[in-house]
TrEMBL record:
Coiled-coil portions: none
NADPH-dependent FMN reductase-like domain residues: 1-128
Source organism: Alkalihalobacillus trypoxylicola
GO molecular function annotations of the record: FMN binding; oxidoreductase activity
Alphabetical list of PANTHER family matching this protein: CHROMATE REDUCTASE, NAD(P)H-DEPENDENT FMN REDUCTASE LOT6
Gene3D superfamilies per UniProt: 3.40.50.360
Protein name, per record: NADPH-dependent FMN reductase
Signal sequence residues: none
Length: 180
C-alpha cells in the first residue's frame, strides 16, 4: 500500500525525519512509504497556482498516487511549522489532491507535550474545505522527550514507542483499506 509521508521539518538531523525513516524501514512489508521532499516547494502564491511549477507538480502527483498521507511534524510556537503550512496550501488548491484522502498525524518533540498542540491545529487544517481529509484518530503518535528515546545516532530505539507503533500500524492499514 503506497503511503506518502510528509515531514514538517526540513532540518537535516530532524527527529521527525528519523521517525519517518523508521516507519519506512520497520514497516516495509506493510506499507510502501515515500518520504516527500517539501524543501524545494516555492512559497504558495495565488498568482502562480496555475503555472506549471516542476516541484509543485511532482509533489502533488506523489500525493495523488498515495493511498494515504502520514504527516510527521514538529511543533513550532504551539502550532505547525510554516514549511508544512506552505505545502498544505499548495495541496489545497486547483486539483485539491487531498480531498477524501486519508491522513494520520504523528510528531516528535524534545518537550513533554509531544506536538499535541500542533496536531490539534493540523487536524483542523485537514478538515478545511480545500483539504477535507478523513483523519485516523484515537491512536495518537505524539512522542515526547525524544532525547531519551534515541540511540547514539539519533534513531528511535525506545521499546515502548516501537511496541506501540507495531500495534497501531496494522490498525491504520486496515482503516485506510476501508477508505479506498
Ligand atoms: C521549537 N520547538 C518547540 N517544541 C515544542 O514542543 N513546542 C513548541 O512550540 C516549539 N516551538 C519551537 C519553535 C521553533 C521556531 C523551533 C526552531 C523549535 C522545539 C522543537 O520541538 C525541536 O527543535 C524539534 O527537534 C524540532 O523537530 P525536528 O527538526 O527535530 O524534527
Amino acid at each position: 500500500m503506497k503511503i506518502a509521508v510528509i515531514v514538517g521539518s526540513i532540518r537535516q538531523e530532524s527527529y521527525n525525519l528519523k521517525l519517518a525513516k523508521l516507519l519506512q524501514d520497520r514497516y516495509q512489508k506493510e506499507l510502501e512509504i515515500d518520504i516527500l521532499d517539501i524543501k524545494k516547494l516555492p512559497f504558495y502564491n495565488p498568482d502562480q497556482e496555475n503555472d506549471q511549477i516542476k516541484e509543485v507538480d511532482h509533489f502533488k502527483k506523489q500525493v495523488k498516487e498515495a493511498k494515504a498521507v502520514i504527516w510527521v511534524t514538529p511543533e513550532y510556537n504551539g502550532t505547525i511549522p510554516g514549511v508544512l503550512g506552505n505545502a498544505i496550501d499548495w495541496l489545497s488548491r486547483v486539483d485539491r489532491v487531498m480531498i477524501g484522502k486519508p491522513s494520520w498525524m504523528m510528531g516528535v518533540s524534545p518537550s513533554q507535550l509531544g506536538t499535541a498542540r500542533a496536531q490539534l491545529h493540523l487536524r483542523d487544517i485537514l478538515f478545511a474545505k480545500g483539504v477535507l481529509s478523513p483523519v485516523f484518530q484515537g491512536h495518537d503518535v505524539q512522542i515526547a522527550g525524544i532525547q531519551s528515546k534515541v540511540d547514539e545516532e539519533g534513531y528511535i530505539n525506545d521499546e515502548a514507542t516501537l511496541a506501540y507503533l507495531d500495534k497501531v500500524i496494522p490498525l491504520f492499514k486496515k482503516w485506510v483499506e476501508k477508505h479506498n
